[in-house]
Amino acid sequence: MTPTLKRILRTLGTVLGWILLLLLVGIPLSFLLFLALLSGLVPLYVLLPLLSVAAAGILAALLRHWCRPGPRGRHGITAAFALVCLGAAAWMGWGAYCAQLPTLDDRTLLLQDYQPFAPDSRAAVLPEPATLQWDEVTARHLRLDGATALYPVYAAFVQAVWPEGEYPLYAGGSDSPYAGLIACTNTVNAYERLMRRETDLIFAAAPSADQLAQAEALGMTLHLTPIGREAFVFFVNSRNPVTGLSVEEIQGIYSGKITNWSQVGGRNQSIRAYQRAENSGSQTALQALMADQPLMEPEQENRISAMDGIIRSVADYRNFSNAIGFSFRFYATELVTSEEIRLLALDGIYPTQETIRDGTYPLSSYFYAVTAAPIGQPPPQETDATLRAFLTWICSPQGQSLVEQTGYVGVHTEG
Fold first, then answer.
1. Element containing residue 369 per DSSP (H, E)
2. What distance in Å separates the CA atoms of residue 313 and residue 245, rounded to the nearest whole number?
């Protein structure tokens, strides 16, 4: 065997050895890291830098072994690996900083706090028994769903009308006869479930144009009963000197015409304008506000999906010093208990129950109890006595009192 052939075989053996090492160590390790990521034990901003350092370390070892560089070459490889490590550390530091910033997306906390009949539930309570009372059989007749921000409202309705019991949000893992009947899957999913007859009644903002088109495509008509009013609000970091904007300035920011806070009386900082997921109640409200003006592309971020791995989606609001976001008033004020986020006045009017009620706050709208029926057929509340009685009670003084106690404005208590 010639020396050349021996070198070739030795090199192939080394390569195969490295490949085997990667297979035996790298694949199981990556799988374990991915499982930890899905379970929430390892955030994405930690996983990706660690994988980058691991890949750079393997590459550096291979270069030193195969290329057999001189002292300067070894120093260069070491310096490059050190730079990768520094970059990974900076990446993780930035990710940790972003993770601790306040957000407005803690759905779990909101749902837990207002669960009907739960110990220490924050759901509003009537001072007297409700005039509409249901037994277990009647209570199981209706399936409810809705927007996260409106769960406290219909949780209070359930606590007043339904029989006392356990009302888990999901059907699995509970032997309660009411498991999954009182759901909260968010605006987008609730409308889809209603149109597919997977629920009977939802509580949400008005449907978007896409949702109306989807209903038509499925042969369904949506029927809306107004049950309250709410303000559409914008908020910034409390250290931002801007305390109010005009509606025209909001339109300028979200169309991309206004890009720096100095253009609206603030510091010389670029504006980081957050949006919400398509067809969500608040994103639909923003689109209505923009009217015929083009809406800028939303900021994106990486997310982990159990089905699709790392995907890009609309970024959640994070309270950077130059950020602006939007939501409905109850959701914003309920989830932000610190003073790090401040609501903005619009056209000089601050959003309160009083300014929503008297109409002086410029961006307020109804929210609804929504049912669906096949096109050409009457609304379900005309043929279903239980549903009709419930909707009638919601619009009664007792139902409207619960709307007001929760923090919204009732439609039958407006001045």
1. strand 364-374
2. 28
